[in-house]
Amino acid sequence: MRQSSLVVVANRLPVDDTVAPDGACEWRRSPGGLVSALHPILQHAPAIWVGWAGGTDTAPTLPDIDGVRMRTVALSEDDVRQHYEGFANATLWPLYHDAVEQPVYHRRWWESYQRVNQRFAEAAAEAAEPGAVVWVQDYHLQLVPGMLRALRPDLLIGFFLHVPFPPPELFMQLPRRAELLLGMLGADLVGFQRAQAAHNFAQLAAKVLQVPATDRRIAVEDRVVRIGAFPVSIDMAEMEVLAARPDVVAHANQLRKDLGEPQHMILSVDRMDYTKGIEHRLKAYSELLADGHIKVRDTVLVQVVVPSRERVEQYQILRDRVEREVGRINGEFGRVGEPAIHYLNQPFDRAELAALYRAADVMMVTPLRDGMNLVAKEYVAARVDGDGALVLSEFAGAAAELTQAYLVNPHDLDGLKLTLMHALEAAPSDVRGRMAAMRAHLRTHDIQAWARSYVTALDRSGSLMTRLTS
Ligand code: G6P
Fold first, then answer.
1. Burial class of residue 100, CB neighbours in 10 A (0-12, 13-18, 19+)
2. Active site residue 247
3. pTM of this prediction exceeds 0.90
């Protein structure tokens, strides 16, 4: 059994199962999201990544990817239904996102969540060298830090939550709230996207567990757990290189031609998720068309929706509603060869996304609640030409940093309409000034800076960082 001084534990392994030109199955590093977030730091250490490869009942042996060893955890069909689709994505996900959908509580889902977390903790314990750093990611694995500490008290354990952490009045709904908090408190450092989330966590620890807690430190038994905000980011340099590639620029120009050379192109890119505010955005857009503020020939909206969690009931209902609304809007306002909304429900590769980002005059990112939203940051990174307006929800973590975006409350439909019009009609100097400020921020707050700041805070003695950078 191979071991490492750095182990990352996440629900998903950073790989996709692709088919090579000769028909053989090939594993590639998957783009975007959490996986690209951790990629840079993993390149510098002979790390092991513990996670699920997708699918059921299989634990394929995977090749090293960019020098990182993959250690697969198998999930059965029941585990996927109850742990991943159930407790993680039908209980915790909606609860942590302001309960914009009703969280569902089932005792058997909780049992499955515990079993699967134990399996991940055991796999991490086997992969970690004595004294290693283990970095556990996200809401699927909140019990792992506590379980791992019980198995391996010698380890330095970090936990980072990529999604929001809710206020006490919501979290208190959870039937097994104390166990979840204690699970996270098994870590030495618990990281969140925003300071508000750390504050919520501290309040809950004090209330539910009756332990001394501030927004920086929580005392549990004989240990002190540090907590704090570490806003995640993107690989700015990678996106800039991609967006400047001649084929990507040509593709962006071609997209504008294919769309009929409109005066304005508006873009949205979301996972198909009820937290993303897709329906609110469509309603605002449809009202602007009805009011005559937007004309189909001059302005096009390209709405990309990437399929996600398709077996979960709330996601199926959302897809039906979005598609019915897009059909209604196109039926009412479109013309032959000129739909009001270009709707695409399919996965997109990085180069295609970069071309879309470069082609769009206005990017609308209007979630009802979002831990960070890396799409907003990717749009900014892709605008190497210094152009492009970002309309951004106040309820995305990214709004705390990208303060020069056209910020909006997506629940306020009139505000949403006004802000979109404002972004469409803004003077080029205003658009460019805002974009320059956001790009400058991301240059110093990229993914490398995020990973460095988290690992430095976790590894206060500096031993791991010395090993990583030597
Ligand atoms: C969010 C979560 C990630 C998750 C991603 C995609 O960003 O924070 O942990 O991987 O959504 O969702 P999926 O269910 O496909 O992993």
1. middle
2. no
3. yes
